[in-house]
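Practice problem. Given the sequence and the SMILES for zinc ion, write out the predicted structure.
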Amino acid sequence: MIRGTWYPKGSANRKKASLIVNDSKKFSIMSEEGEIELVAGDFLGLAVSDRVGNIMRRLTLPDQSIFETLDNNAVDACLKTHIHPANSRSLFFQLESSHRMLFLSFIVIIALGISLKWSVPWASGLIAESIPQKVREHISRESLIVMDAAIFKESETSVVIQKKIKNHFENEVLPTLSGDTLKGSAFTLHFRKLSRSTAGTEKQIDIANAFAFPSGDIIVTDELIRVANNQQEIDVILYHEIAHVLHNHGLKQVIKSTLVTTIFLMLTDGASFVEDILLGFPVFFIQSHYSKIYETEADKFAFELMLKNNINPTVFSDMLSKISIEKKKEAVQVDEQNENYFSTHPATSKRLKMAKKYAEQFSKQRQP
Ligand SMILES: [Zn+2]
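Answer key:
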């Protein structure tokens, strides 16, 4: 029995009534007060409105009178029990609409993914480029303070050697960069000792690495200088680091990850974008993982400079291999996530192949 209201055709005389359907699929509308049968007929012949949420359901009876009820669940159960055509229609409608929702959500997710994939790097590039040198210097200074406290120690490289490398950098390396590529960046070399304790022992392992800050400040570790046999081997690493600065790789990478986090955080709370960038830098430099695209870009830039300055590109691959051997010696003790130049700048076969290509160009260029 389904309770509702009956509206006779062409009359405002509505009545509280109930719908009853028996096993032989005959229905009757009974008035509630007097138990009078108001209308009766074949249940399967009734026109039943589609269910829309919990809105009043309307059944149009054979004499064109109307029975309305809010008991949607009872109507659906009744349609199902007596296999009323409206049942399959409502099922079909539900199925179709849920499929439609699924498909729509799928499209929305794909579109969001695609637009984020393209728009986030693009926006990160724009933001990175628009950050003025003063802000870059601020970010870099703050990051260096954190890194000095967290991972760096004072350099043990002799002052004489430091001075020699610095002079060479300022008088030989920097002048080979053309003014417009510099875009206001002021490159300065700094020296630090970077070591890492090995798991379970007191032993410290020195790490060969270089870090490029967005301001143009470049940190070179003692171990990197130690494994280099000559000035050229340091130069090629510096070219590569200069490229990271000039192409805004560090800024782009931190902004990119900050943007993605911020987009998702914005839905819950208002995270400060600028604060996140500032916080992100020391973390980025300590973990220092440039994307492969940035590494390739920096390598290319370095190779071009090597050709221009008459340095054989094999110096670069030799340096990478040398640090790689260093790393293998330490690999037993040092875990994979360490701050070795080679682990943050992995010498993939692709990189070595590119070095070989440039080396061929170099030998061609030297032939008269
Ligand atoms: Zn790199």
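Check your answer against the key. Residues 116-366 form one domain.
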